Automatic annotation (TrEMBL):
Protein name, per record: ATP-dependent 6-phosphofructokinase
Cellular localisation: Cytoplasm
Pfam families: PFK (PF00365)
Keywords linked to the UniProt accession: Allosteric enzyme, ATP-binding, Cytoplasm, Glycolysis, Kinase, Magnesium, Metal-binding, Nucleotide-binding, Transferase
Residue numbers binding substrate: T127, I128, D129, R164, M171, G172, R173, E224, R248, H254, L255, Q256, R257
Native organism taxonomy: Bacteria, Pseudomonadati, Bacteroidota, Bacteroidia, Bacteroidales
Enzyme type, top EC level: transferase
Binding site for ATP: G11, R72, S73, G102, N103, G104, S105
Inhibition and activation profile: Allosterically activated by ADP and other diphosphonucleosides, and allosterically inhibited by phosphoenolpyruvate.
Protein family according to the UniProt entry: Belongs to the phosphofructokinase type A (PFKA) family. ATP-dependent PFK group I subfamily. Prokaryotic clade 'B1' sub-subfamily.
MF term (GO), any: 6-phosphofructokinase activity
Positions of the catalytic residues: D129
Chief subcellular location: cytoplasm
Gene, per the UniProt record: pfkA
Taxonomic source organism: Bacteroides gallinaceum
Amino acid sequence: KGYIGILTSGGDASGMNATIRAITRSAICNGYKVKGIYRGYEGLIHDEIRELTSEDVSNIIQRGGTILKTARSKDFETPEGRQKAYEVMQKEEITALFVIGGNGSLTGARVFAQEHDDVVCIGLPGTIDNDLCGTDRTIGYDTALNTIVDCVDKIRDTATSHERIFFVEVMGRDAGFLAQNSAIASGAEAAIIPEDQTDKDQLEEFISRGFRKTKNSSIVIVTESATGKGAAYYADRVKKEYPQYDVRVTILGHLQRGGSPSAGDRILASRLGCASIQALMEGQRNVMIGIRNDKVVYVPIAEAIKQHKPIDNSLIDVLNELSI
Ligand code: F6P
């Protein structure tokens, strides 16, 4: 049958180890042999590969990060790099490639499978950003969300004591799931997210709601921005336009990616990992294993990465209603 190859790619996410464990154990249970590919696609190109046994994945379900290491491979974006990866797969007798990662990683898998008919790719959604279509959740999202909420609870103590406005910047790349839902869960006054594309200025909206009339402090969660409109941008605007307010910025950064995975992420990883082997046995190829309405689904990788995953507008309404 050849080997199943597993790699983790892109930003790490808590629950990746639980996914590696589930794929490995389920594969072995069903008569397959497994190889771990180190450092994502980089390790595939450079043949950093070794067999994984059931014992190799012991005692990792509770650990953050990824035992296989991860990378964002520039070489894999080139046809030459992918050709090299293909040759290494042949040499290592890997017949099915299991890719745990986010949007960029699954885009790589799709291009690779398009170039090589005989390559079977199975994707598992592993990213804190929750930005893959066709699945309600991605592995790592729940843990990151809980981490953010813990941090905001702490910031709230000092914000209240000093009567300050805090702009807290969270990750998500260009997706506002972490910001919007952490704002709801932490009782924040507002969230500034990229999906809110109406003409209105999200900061003006927040100020004009007159937050100071009833509250002596405020927390605004802001999605990071590649175009410079992160927490610092909004804080600077408030400092200039409303100098009466005392403003601070906290950028949570990479602490959002670490830590022991939540029970929810461990269970999701275990379910999707087992389902991925099931999918292989059913002859599925080039699909991502997702979860919808608490049921496992197979989503063509092309669909999972096709568009920006929409945020449910009712989440915006919930925050607005509850933050008066
Ligand atoms: O995709 C996961 C993610 O954490 C994003 O939220 C963030 O924009 C990015 O990765 C950060 O990447 P890096 O760890 O390479 O700085």
